[in-house]
Design goal:
Helices cover about 50% and strands about 20% of the residues. It has about 190 residues and is α+β, with helices and mostly antiparallel strands. A hairpin with a 4-residue loop joins strand 1 and strand 2.
Amino acid sequence: MNAEIREYGVYIAATALRNLRIDAVEDFLRDVKELVKPAQVQVFNADRVGGWKHLYFAAFLALKAMDEGVNVSESLPMEVLIQASAQRQIKKAIEILGLGRGDVNAAIFLVSEERENLSEALGKLRETYGKALDEELLGINGEKAEELKRLFDITDAQLSAENDAYDPKEALTNLIIERMTIQLFRR
């Protein structure tokens, strides 16, 4: 999945990797950053991402925060993680959405000012990880929905009152984005 955020002149893309064995998170992150250069990358626990729209708005809000000087991090990828977690503290954002060791599903988020950089980065990911690539991991299923409700403190009553309540997955994503937006404007 990819898009342009015209207001800020950047392109973004996301995909996911299924069932990775990660023994050293720092080594994995370093290797992925090197692999996708010159694109910038942030890696999330895919089991805690509320869909493509969640990542899109995290990027938009990160860019907005940096533009308005209310960013927490100097790094755009880290600011995306902070926004996606609806937190102000880097440590807390990593606890909520960061990768852990062991067998994990990883969401890979890419950003660049050049569309071609994203195409090249996605190609390199395909070459390196092949069949492990699975964008469906970005979507929401029943078990994931419960985890997201817990992480973002969303109640069933809030879900049923949301404008998109006829689609619980869309309603959940909308409420996560609402949490992110509220956190940004509390700064």
